[in-house]
Amino acid sequence: MDGVAIAVAEGEKVGIVGETGCGKSITMKAMMGILPIPPARIAQGQIQFNGRDLLTLTKKEMREVRRREMSFIPQDPSASLNPVLRVGTQLIDVIRYSGNIQKPLSKREARRRAINILREVGLPDPQRNMRSYPIQLSGGMQQRILISMALATGAILLIADEPSTALDVTIQDQILRLMRELVERRGVSIVIITHNLGVVRELTDRTYVMYAGQVVENVKTKQLFAEQIGSMHPYTQGLLDSIPRMTGEGVTAGIRGMIPDYADPPSGCRFRPRCDRAMPICETRPPAFHVEEGHNIACHLYEG
Amino acid sequence: MKTRLYSAILGSWETFRRGWYKFSRNRLSVVGLFAVFLVAFLAIFAPYVAPHAEHAGRYVCFADKHQPPSWKYLFGTDVCGRDILSRIFFGFRFSLMMGVVVLALVVPPGVILGLIAGYFKGMWIDTVIMRVTDVFLSIPPLVLALAIASVLKPNLFNSMVAISLMWWPWYCRLIYGVTSSLRNESFVLAAKVTGAGTFRILFREILPNCISPIFTKMSLDMGWVILLGAALSFVGLGIQPPQPGLGTMIADGAKYMPGNWWSSIFPAFAIMLVVLGFNLLGDGLRDVLSAEEV
Amino acid sequence: MSFATYLVRRLMHSILVLFGLSILVFLIARVLPGDPARVALGPRAPEETVQRWREWMHLDKPLYIQYYYWLANALHGDLGISLYSRQNVAIDIKTYFPATAELALFAGLIMTVFGVSFGAISARYSNTWVDNVVRMGSYVGVVTPAFIFGILFLLLFGYVLRILPTTGRLDYSTTAPPIITGMVTIDSLVTGNFAAFLDALKHLLMPAAALALGPMSQEARITRASMSDNLKKDYMLLVGAQGIPERLINFKYLLKPSLIPTVSILGLDFAALLGNAFLVELIFGWPGLSRYGIQTMLLSDLNAITGVVMMLGIVFTLANILVDIVVAYLDPRIRLTGERLQ
To answer: Is the dihedral of CA A57, A58, A62, A68 positive or negative?
Structure first.
């Protein structure tokens, strides 16, 4: 990983997009402080969150941060719920201990709050469904439960890992819209890790594009999807071109080549071997960010 | 024709080498293999490596009876003055023979029945075979073996018969599980579509997928079968004295405990060695074979 | 299908299987020996005695008629006369069963409680010396047969160290409690006879331990593996991030799913217990059903063998059903789909 700079403003919805292996999961884990330190190593940098640099915190303090200020929505809902306990129990436990561990909330109060949150996320008949076991619920319902767990802790930052990939296509849309509503209504920030540009378009204000361990572009989502050819990073452009269209020729172009070997990345720009618009300078010098009103691109084509 | 054979041999050699590499990474598995080889070696060459090979048969020398372990008799002597170490070597012969014979008798019918029951799952033949299996498995294994052995004349052969009669259901169940989960896989359907008969499907498509679990189970089972045989002999329903069965030796020696502890303890350790060896070997095989399936 | 349906089906299945078992045992006792009467009475009995025995046991009639007589009698509690005790086998079973039950229960308790505890400790301190010691120990436990443990214990604790008694259920000098359940420990506790209770425990210790060590090691291994596996699962990682206190995580979120494989093999382990009891009771002179079984087996006492095997079959089947119920309680996936997860 090299030179990953991501900023999330209060209430902002940010997407991190990239193909498998580009480093988005690692970035996410680093943010949450759950990167397994050997074998990983943080050589340089800081993670500023809510006024503190997370890298300076002890493991215990980091756990507290994770508990109260950050929340995680995992990818596969059926694997993320304990199969032998009722979902209500799991949610209530989260609510009870979301404040002070020494003095947990009373069961009754937690139960009341649980029912409210479940209503808010659109789970039908919360009282009855709380008594269900995960296996009795559909994927969409399970994901709603996980979302409520994430919201219940009162966190100000949600981190969602491929939030709809494990769901049926028909449910994906529902869940994504639900998430957008909730985030906007509660004013929390959310970071969405995904490889799916459709998710990004639906859900985010700002998109970071990652490739081979680096952030190569940082742009307002609206701008990303406006039909402007030529003002994107070649990789981003390639991704956009790869989206199948209803009209036109049918088979999409794709991006030729393969992701580089991380142990021995290409010199200069890491995308150079796959880039149709590479210039001699791309081989010798890594590109710097070119900043232009909320749109940063790391590409020699745009250096001015 | 020759090239096909050649490449087939080369292919298997490669597979073997790869498998061996994986297997040897786990030290315990290698220990197991070594233990098994040791036991096999001692068993096969017993007449040549045993210091007092003649003690394994009808031999009596009361002057030497109940000698504690010494340089002459490494594990001491028993009540008839026979060298325990040598008898243990010959005892290994019986143990290994029992394991091999029982498995040879048990695996083919068990596997075939399992294939049939699993493939025709839901039909009457499945129900019949599985019910019979259930009946055999409804009492603890040792009890059934003892019961069968007790109504036959007590000797080595009959104890093998007894164990064989109660061991086959395990293989039947194992193969039943594998077959019933495989029978709806695409490659089976493909074979059906191209007109393969049931026989062909069972033996050319499904059976090769069962080889790994069968071999794993067989190596683990060697230990357990030998143990069962020793238990039968211990009670008197298996190998009869003066033949040097390990279980028989333990029982004989037990009468003279605690004073002449060596006549029971060393044969006991010998059995533990055999069982441990096959256990470790079987575990190692399982790790290698099931990892490959992934 | 619901769980109640599943349970009923299970019971029906078990009854069918027990029926099948009775036929199997019957065949073993009547067909295998060749000449059951001769086998039962021995080679030296005069021919006319053997002939009378044959008639009395209906051995000259076709097999299914023999079976019918046997079954009809059995259902009335008459299991035939034992050559060994000269009584009805049913009475013998009633006499000797409690001792074996006591032994089996005690061993079962040791095996479950210690097995799970060691496994949990091993998982908690994974890859430390504690873990390695437990794993090594459990390997030894698994490969050593119960009767060898019995002999080793007898040698060590009974003769060398002389701290534990070597035979029987009570010392001669201790007053035995009245027979209520037939289990000395329970009877003495219930009647307040603590001296007898302690003495009975002392006698129980070695044979129960010999029986339990093997299955206990097995349970420890499976518990450890199960806990280690579950710790890596997504739901455990998530619950850690959600801030639930560690004590609650371990006892509620980790233990319940991890016990499922452990309890599932309890049935097989219990079978091992019942089987090995035959040898262990013999070694320790424990007057239980299994020792009775061995003694009658050595005499080819056909009625007794049949009775003992059937009795054990019933006990084992009930134990399996119980295990299934507990597993279903632990794992709602089974309860709700009514199927066994292989």
So the answer is: negative
Residue C218: which residues within 8 A CB-CB, separation 6 or more? C115, C138, C141, C142, C265, C269
User: Which residues 217-236 in chain B show a CB within 8 A of chain C?
Assistant: 223, 227, 230-231, 234-236
How many pairs of residues across B and C have Cβ atoms under 8 Å apart? Answer: 126
Strands A13-17 and A189-194: parallel
- Tokens 């801030």 found at: C243
Q: Say yes or no: A79 contacts chain C, CB-CB below 8 A.
A: yes
Q: Is A38 on the interface with C (CB under 8 A)?
A: no
SS (H, E, C) chain B: CHHHHHHHHHHHHHHHHHHHHHHHHCHHHHHHHHHHHHHHHHHHCHHHHCCCHHHHCCCCCHHHCCCCCCCCCCCCECCCCCEHHHHHHHHHHHHHHHHHHHHHHHHHHHHHHHHHHHHCCCCHHHHHHHHHHHHHCCCCHHHHHHHHHHCCCCCHHHHHHHHHHHHHHHHHHHHHHHHHHHCCCHHHHHHHHCCCCHHHHHHHHHHHHHHHHHHHHHHHHHHHHHHHHHHHHHHCCCCCCCCCCHHHHHHHHHCCCCCCCHHHHHHHHHHHHHHHHHHHHHHHHHHHHHHHHC
Is the CB of residue C342 less than 8 Å away from at least one CB of chain A? no
Chain B contacts of C144, Cβ < 8 Å?
A: 272, 275
Q: Do chains B and C touch (3 or more CB pairs under 8 A)?
A: yes
CB pairs under 8 A between A and C: 67
Q: Quick count: other Cβ atoms within 10 Å of Cβ A128? A: 10
Label residue A120 by pLDDT band (50, 70, 90): confident
- Closest by CA position to A127, among listed A135, A118, A137, A136: A118
ipTM: 0.85
Residues whose CB falls within 8 Å of the CB of residue C55, separated by 6 or more in sequence, listed in order: none
Angle at A254 (CA atoms; ends A251, A260), nearest 5 degrees: 160
Candidates B139, B237, B258; nearest CB to C312: B139
Nearest CA to C304 out of C324, C289, C315 is that of C289
Q: Where exactly are the structural domains of chain C?
A: 15-74, 95-288
* Closest partner CB to C257 (pick from A34, A84, A93): A84
pLDDT per residue over A56-106, tens digit each?
888 778 878 887 888 888 888 888 899 888 999 999 988 888 777 777 788
Report whether CATH 1.10.3720 matches the domain C95-288.
yes
Neighbors of chain B by Cβ distance (3+ pairs < 8 Å): C
pLDDT digits (tens, 9 = 90+) for B66-85: 778 777 778 888 878 888 88
Look up the pTM and report it.
Answer: 0.81
B110 confidence band (pLDDT: 50, 70, 90): very high
Nearest by CB: B150 against C16, C21, C305: C305
Dihedral, CA atoms, A138, A144, A147, A152, nearest 10 degrees? -120
